[in-house]
Amino acid sequence: MSPTAAKEWPLIAFTLLSQIAVGAFWTLAAAHLFSWEARVRGENEFLVLPGLVIVAALLVAAAALSFFHLGRPKRAVFVLANLRRSWLSREILFELAFLAMVVLLAFFSRRRAEPMALVQGAYILASLFGALFLFSMSKLYMLRTVPAWRGLYTPLSFFLSALLLGPLAAAAGQERLFAFPERAYAFQDVVGISALAAVALIVLMSLLFTPRIGFLGTKTATLLEFPAQRIYPLLFFRLLFLAATILFIALYHDVERGALMRLAFVSAGAAEVLGRYLFYAVYSRIGV
Amino acid sequence: MEQQTWVRQYAFYFDSSACTGCKACQVACKDKHDLPVDILWRRVYEVTGGTWKKEGGVWVPAVLSYYLSMACHHCEKPICGEGCPTKAIYKRDDGIVMLETLACIGCRYCEWACPYGAIQFDPASRVVTKCHFCYDYLALGEPPACVSACPMRALDFGDLSELRKKYAGTREIFPLPEASLTEPALVIKPHRDAARASKDTAEVANWEEI
Amino acid sequence: MSDDGLIKKKLEAAPMRRRSFLGWSSFFGGSALTSSKLAKKLGLGPRAKSAPVLQEASAEAKMIRTGCPSHNCGGRCLLKVYVRDGKIVRIEGDDRPNDGVEDPQLRPCVRGRAYRRRQDHPDRLLHPMKRTGRRGEGKFVRISWDEALDKVASEMKRVKETHGNTAIYVPYGTGSYNQINGRQTAQRLMNLFGGSLDFYNSYSWAAISCATPYVYGTNVTGNQRQDWLNSKYILMWSWNPAEMRDGTNSEYFLKKAKEKGAKLVCIDPRMTLSAVGLADEWIPIRHGTDAAMMSAMAHVMITEKLIDAGFIKTHCVGFDETQMPPGAEGAESYKDYILGSRDGVAKTPEWAEPICGVPKKTIVRIAREYATAKPAVLYQGYGMQRRAYGEQVVRAGCVLAAITGTVGVPGGWAGGIALQAPDGGPAWTVFPTGSNPVKAKIPSFLWTEAVLRGKDMGPTDGLVGAEKLGTNIKMIYAVACNALINQHANINRTAKILADEKLVEFLVVQDNFLTPTGRFADLLLPACTQFETWGVADGWKYGDEVILMPKVVDPPGEAKSDYRICADIAQRLGLGDAYTEGRDERDWVAWSIEFFRKQRFPNVPALDEFEKSNIGVYSVPVTKPAVAFAEFRKDPMNHPLPTPSGRIEIFSQRLHDLNKPDVIPAVPKYIREWESPFGPEAKKYPLQVVGHHYLATVHSTLDNVDWLREAWPQRVFINPLDAEARGVANGDQVKVYNDRGATLVRCRVTKRIMPGVIAIPQGAWWDPDEKGVDRRGSVNVLTSERWTPLAFGNAQHTIMAQVEKA
Ligand SMILES: Nc1nc2c(c(=O)[nH]1)N[C@H]1C(S)=C(S)[C@@H](COP(=O)(O)OP(=O)(O)OC[C@H]3O[C@@H](n4cnc5c(=O)[nH]c(N)nc54)[C@H](O)[C@@H]3O)O[C@H]1N2
Ligand SMILES: Nc1nc2c(c(=O)[nH]1)N[C@H]1C(S)=C(S)[C@@H](COP(=O)(O)OP(=O)(O)OC[C@H]3O[C@@H](n4cnc5c(=O)[nH]c(N)nc54)[C@H](O)[C@@H]3O)O[C@H]1N2
Ligand code: SF4
Ligand code: SF4
Ligand code: SF4
Ligand code: SF4
Ligand code: SF4
Ligand SMILES: [Mo]
User: Fold this and answer.
1) Count of CB atoms situated within 10 Å of the CB of C341
2) What is the model's pLDDT at position A83?
3) Domain A3-281 has CATH 1.10.10.10
4) Residue C344 backbone class (left: φ over 0; alpha: ψ -120 to 50; beta: rest)
5) What residue ranges do the domains of chain A occupy?
6) What pLDDT, on a 0 to 100 scale, did the predictor assign at position A260?
């Protein structure tokens, strides 16, 4: 009677969408914070609005989907009751805080709010909340009784998902975000390279951790012992590889980048969905 | 029934050396709490392992087997409750770990955490459920339903420190987790075969029954 | 249970929970949240202002102590049932204080605990029904009681007129022993009606109850169980009391014996619940070969002089050539057989090893342990005798007790069926069936023979009371019986016989459910359960108590007690008053209690007092357990056994005189079974099958109870070595088959069974698909109708089969 991965689709959706949202927001924040000309910044402020709206929408969608995980969604308000001890409570707290900040920033952006320092401060604070959100999200899985989830793998994979998919998502929608194509181009360079780095890290980390996964549970040993699921890790790596290849082409060949970036996002996204499925599949606890 | 003196931590005693795995305890609990199929607040694990060897012309067993009748152990460090976002899980003064189903949102987080499989999701009420030590019977001075059910008289209950005084026992027995993880309120008299059981030599053999 | 229903119900059941909720809600700062509209909307309901007074769930319910329904389950236990609004809402066990060895609580087993799920089962038979389709098709239509009862009465008259009373048969059926329900009520009806064909022996103990008296002259060969605490060594041979109980508390007494230092050893092809929970050691043995191991043990004892020569000399006959009975002086003695002086085969451990699959050094060790750890018990379970030459192994075990001199001493054990000293123990049925004008009796297992060729059946077919039966069975009235189909051997054969309307012309089945036997009924009559009528029971095999079983709830639908149904039929035959003698169910219970008073329990309270006390059980503490044959042991001359020689007959002249030495030798011998791993049949069907008794059920009773099937699913147990050889993994659906039938069932691959042996617990309801392949794991599609040579008993544990992945 242990939860099986297939039943965890609401959590797969919740975690990934949230991570995309946080990662995309970080990208926006970076774009904002590192744009130096006030005029450009002003342009961006205006144009960044759709991005913020999308981030907020992603967060709301993620939260909505997570309700499908709950047996009693109507009682979800109770979830904040245990901030003192429960990482799950904290996760939701930080999610709400993050969402509030994103909405606030969207408001600022619409009003072209001044002074800039306040807006920048808000970006920084929001980014921090996003990080805390992801941190508590990973913390809640790091149960002492679930060795496969307990280690660094969990936070690393959650943050890397955000760092891979978030910027890619932003880059995929870049035309709308930047007034000046050359800036967009530079931005894509940064995003592309960091995404490549993220892929490399994910692959490395998965290779490092997979053999150890689930080693302690009484019931199941390693992932590779599920014959039906043996195919998934392979697919996971292939999809990541595909995403990397596409990115590589986009970055170093003279091609129309927009479509390729979107393609890279889709294949990296597919890889991450699989990866997250596997994450839940290796659940296996100490004891009985 | 002797009047219970003040109890700091209610606990179960389980004599694995005398348990036949008959499951009277399991079903007594189901009857008392009207539990549907698939929910077992008390469960009986069969641990089996060892080998068969050919000696001369015949197969000779070096097989080990024993049972563990397990409920919630009302741990002193209930990991189930640590993460519960709604505080639906809390510890009473007498050590009983209670689960307030009215407050439960059914996130099943506690189910992931409990290393004893004590917490089980009820698809009908869509919340998790678990053993509450028959606190209603305790208040009446009666033993929990499972304890008085055992035809082998292999179960007992009482204050943890009293039980420890009354019976020599352990909490470390394969395949239970290290006791330090949750400090279960449990005293087990191990079956003779338990000494030979480990992850390499034995396994829970009756998952389909649990 | 739906949704909030469960929570609500639990809340109702345990008001305390509300208080605990307050504890939780205080987190939100008192009642801020909980008294809000939101809280109400969320279904948190009105909250108690202060902690409610604690109230026990069942406080509003009425608690009645009663016996667990008296099936053929191996025990008789005391329940506390809680009744609310005409429904049993909870079942608990015996709670009498002073739970000790002398008078222990009669704690129910898992089946009794789960009984509500049978009692309130949606499939209960509620109305009389008559067959519409072909016989056995299982199609029925509801009819009135009047139509049903008129039909039974008219068919009884018709069959009586055309074929005679001997053509009517009330078959073996062990569903109820509470006096008021059960087959005995129908037997009384038939006896008043001019009689019906009777049977003797049982599916349980045919061989052991027949063979034991050939050694001891009686079946009362057992000590009271508390005496096990005086033993130093207990060989649990084919004995699994943790699962089949063998009297409530047998497993508990064994635990106590162990605590006092006895060593317990289980000899069984399966590492049973007893082997794990009771024994110190498990010795797997190929089933059907125990007599070989016992003979080899005798060889060790004889050659190592571990026998009690003095006791043999004074108390036994036929051990060696010095003590052969007159007229058989030159015959082969037991010692001759063991040493091989006649047949040239010494029954050494080396000889036994390849037969039994037990290493010779183990045989030697067990022989020494048993012979020297005085006093010792060699307990013979009934599994070892429900098989091809079941009589031999029974006698072989008794002889080991005899030659080691453990008979008639505290802590010892004579072996055999071991009904308890001094009086044979429980009576089971005291309801007066009256005497049967038809004197002919068939062995219980041979009823299909009587259906097919009863006309010609005579003593060679086990017929007693008549030289010839003279008629086939033409009408069957089956009450509390699933042994026409499910529990009888070779279901596919029996199904064909019953489907033929020219053979059995009228078939009534009276049960709580539409069982596989019921499928073949022409008329189905709904009997109430034992909670729904009055009853009284004494123990199963052992016991020193009377358990009162008051009616606790009303029957559902139109169900009635077996007694009432039979009384109503009697009424239609003009035998109403003769049948009831003016008594209703409760009056017969009063009558039965008076019977118990005269028979074994002079101080049992009369019914009114018994009922009023709500004690449920009257028990006699056993302070000095009786020891069988104690007087014979002390003074064999003045207290001879009721055998022809007055002594323990290791050699039986009566058997000698039968002159069938190959199948009924005069001294107990190992005889290779007609289906075994050693014959040509093993090529096609290499696996031995045992259909053991399972904790999930009482035979087929309770097979439909979900809590029990959750705990003990139906499956075939198979050793990893055999599974691997067949490409079968744990949990796979497999087909188990032989020439007689096939069954589909999931497998449990387990090291707890010896290689070459598989086990399919008996009792699962036969469920054939269109091709006749059973889909439920009903072991009796594999068993054979062949009977044992001396007892004419069932040999349902003698099976060879093959397994393949389905
Ligand atoms: N749970 C439960 N208990 C019951 C019943 C029930 O249906 N369910 N039925 C009751 C009734 S009516 C009866 S008659 C008794 C029956 O009681 P038994 O006849 O004693 O029960 P079985 O399970 O047939 O056999 C007992 C053990 O003997 C083993 N065995 C079988 N054949 C052999 C053999 O040849 N040699 C050896 N050494 N072992 C062998 C089996 O593996 C099993 O573990 O049980 C009673 N108790
Ligand atoms: N292969 C194999 N077959 C076996 C055995 C074995 O070891 N192996 N064991 C044999 C043995 S020992 C026995 S005793 C027989 C038992 O065989 P049966 O005597 O047929 O026993 P059950 O299968 O319990 O069937 C009893 C029926 O009575 C019904 N019943 C229960 N209570 C009542 C009641 O109060 N009134 C009425 N009218 N009906 C009621 C039940 O629903 C059930 O259908 O099986 C034998 N069959
Ligand atoms: S056994 Fe599990 S559910 Fe019970 S208190 Fe301990 S951790 Fe919590
Ligand atoms: S399922 Fe219920 S009890 Fe368990 S953690 Fe979630 S809210 Fe708490
Ligand atoms: S104490 Fe009560 S609730 Fe807990 S397992 Fe025993 S019977 Fe069930
Ligand atoms: S009732 Fe007793 S003997 Fe039976 S499984 Fe439970 S603890 Fe073990
Ligand atoms: S042994 Fe028999 S009487 Fe006792 S509880 Fe079990 S089924 Fe009922
Ligand atoms: Mo039986």
Assistant:
1) 15
2) 94
3) no
4) left
5) 3-281
6) 87
Task: With cut-offs at 50, 70 and 90, classify the pLDDT of residue B168.
Answer: confident
Q: Give the gyration radius of chain A's Cα atoms.
A: 20
**Single-letter amino acid code for the residue at B163:** L
3-state class (DSSP) for residue C299: helix
Higher pLDDT, A152 or C89: C89
**B131-157 pLDDT, tens per residue?**
999 999 999 999 999 999 999 999 999
Atom number, ligand 2, closest to the C-alpha of residue C479: 38
Cβ atoms C399, C256 nearer than 8 A: no
pLDDT digits (tens, 9 = 90+) for C319-375: 999 999 999 999 999 999 999 999 999 999 999 999 999 999 999 999 999 999 999
**Which of A75, A77, A81 lies closest to C27 in CB terms?**
A81
Residue matched to tokens 């080991």: C400
Residue contact B177–A87, C-beta within 8 A: no
Residues with Cβ < 8 Å from C187, sequence gap 6 or more? C170, C196, C433, C436
**Rg of chain C, C-alpha, whole Å:** 28
- Residue in C714, C782, C768, C764 with CA at minimum distance from that of residue C138: C768
Q: What would the mean pLDDT of C474-485 be, rounded to a whole number? A: 98
Concatenate the DSSP letters of all residues of B88-136 into one string: -EEE-TTS-EEE-TTT-----HHHHH-TT---EEETTTTEEE---TTHH
By most ligand atoms within 8 Å of CB, the mutation choice from C65, C92, C248 for ligand 7 is C248
Three-state DSSP class for residue C772: coil
Tokens 């393949």 appear where?
C804
Pocket test for ligand 1, best of C271, C389, C693 (most atoms within 8 A of CB): C693
Of the ranges A31-35, A230-234, C270-274, the best mean pLDDT one: C270-274
Does B79 sit in the ligand 3 pocket, CB within 6 Å?
yes
Q: Looking at the DSSP assignment, which residues form a beta bridge with residue C548?
A: C536
Residue B104 Cβ inside 6 Å of ligand 4? The answer reads yes
Which of B22, B102, B124 is opposite residue C110, by nearest beta carbon? Answer: B22
Quote the CA–CA distance of C541 and C426 in Å, as a whole number. Answer: 6
